[in-house]
Design brief:
Layout: E1 12-21, E2 30-32, E3 35-42, E4 44-49, E5 53-57, E6 60-64, E7 70-74, E8 78-86, H1 93-96, E9 101-103, E10 129-132, H2 135-150, H3 156-175, H4 190-202, H5 210-217, H6 221-232, H7 236-254, H8 259-265, H9 271-282, H10 286-295
Antiparallel strand pairs: 1-8, 2-9, 3-6, 3-8, 4-5, 4-7, 6-10
Helix pairs in contact: 2-3, 7-8, 7-10
Length: about 300
Amino acid sequence: MLCEHFFSLNITPGTLYHGSWVAGRVERNRRIYDYEFVYFSSGSGRVITEDTTYFCRRGSVIIIPPGQVHCTIADAAVERWCIHFDWFGTCRAHREKERIWVFLDSDEVFETSLMAESPTGIFDVRFPFQNDLPGKSSLEMFNLLESFFRVAPDTLTGLLRKRGLFLEILSLALNQFPGSVEASNERLNPRFFQAKSSMDSSFAKPEFGLAQLAGRLRITPNHLTKLFRQKLGMSALDYLQNLRLQLAAELLRENSLNIQEVAQKSGFANANYFTRIFRLRHGLTPTAFRRMALSTIEP
């Protein structure tokens, strides 16, 4: 049965990413149009979906299907390799969209008609798929990914080589089916994703508050905090302040706004409160942080 479908496969790798995240970094909620292969070559983190939380460490592979709401958090500094792909070459978003994902906190509409076709019914694999590769296979995967990312598909030979390497990567990822997936079995409360998306889109507004957010979601502020501690390991207030302080640090590096303006644009209504929170986080006042950041930038 599987052999009959072999020649219908048109597995083509698309958008690529390789990089490191610092501990505590949280991805924005998003949906993708195709399949995403993710490999953790170091560190540890979690991929949070609407149904399950997948715990990933060095050697972990996870394949996320189209339409699945998800985000990733780095529990420790992680190095990840990500490859978007399509099983049959039917993903219209590859041809019609500039970006292969849609953030939930944006106004962009996710068009299900553009999604990649699922291989369910052909392969005995359920997605999302997770596998934790043992040491030898983990090293082999790392070497394959290094070779894959080095090959430039600007010639026929390069294109064929790159596609061949990706088939090897998928083969290794799917070869050893997980005996025990380290995932939580509880159904995620959809209010967590709703709350996180609201924060991701509105955190820079000084009038945005957790009490009002909890009210809109018809839950108590304590329940909201419990959701974030359970899923991200931090309170809702900590996550909100992380977003604001991250934006503030970016604005300070630009050196085009005064401290009051930086505070306002990053979501702090009071500049003195902003200075106090910023100093607690960075060990420097905003002014000292800006001075140090600018002194490290070459003309």
